[in-house]
Amino acid sequence: MGYTTKQSREILNCLEKNKNRHLTADEIYNILNSEGISIGRTTVYRQLEKLYDNTVVRRFKLDGNTSACYQLAQPCGECHSHYHLKCTVCGKLVHAQCDFLNELSQHIFKDHNFIVDGEKTVLYGICENCLGKERHDD
User: Fold this and answer.
1) Which of 30, 2, 6 is nearest to 18 (CA)?
2) Which domain holds residue 110?
3) Are residues 64 and 103 in the same domain?
4) E-strand stretches of 4-107
5) What phi and psi values does residue 55 have, to the nearest 5 degrees?
6) N or C terminus: which one in the chain shows less Cβ crowding within 10 Å?
7) Has residue 52 been placed in a domain?
8) Sheet with 93-96, side-by-side order of all strands
9) Is the separation of the CB atoms in 130 and 87 below 8 Å?
10) pLDDT digit of tens for each residue in the chain (138 aa)?
11) Residue 48's closest CA among 36, 62, 33, 59?
């Protein structure tokens, strides 16, 4: 990646500690500040863009209304070949390596002449842990 600043190293450490989640720039900023790491919000945004440009982090943009989410890029393109499941309660990210979903992608290509981009495919719902908490609270 070339020259690495202290700020980008702190952001990378934060993303590594949270590698099973997609984090917004604001979430990264809040985590770092809660750990006593002094970094400006603008610096977090700027460093994330540089890390994204250098393919060190992955960026997920759902639409023009919500904040982009970031995740540390996995080696060897691990995230390119499968869907992701994201919990809307706790933010946990699950890498769904599943034959059924692979068959779904093949069906979409075969019957609809459309290639699904696994890197950008995120299904949203509630994870097992949060679902269990909701059931327990009832």
Assistant:
1) 30
2) 77-137
3) no
4) 23-24, 57-60, 69-72, 83-87, 93-96
5) 55, 30
6) C
7) yes
8) 93-96, 83-87, 122-125
9) yes
10) 556 789 999 999 999 998 877 789 999 999 999 999 999 999 999 999 999 998 898 887 765 667 888 888 866 545 556 788 888 888 777 778 788 988 998 999 999 999 988 767 888 899 999 988 776 665
11) 59
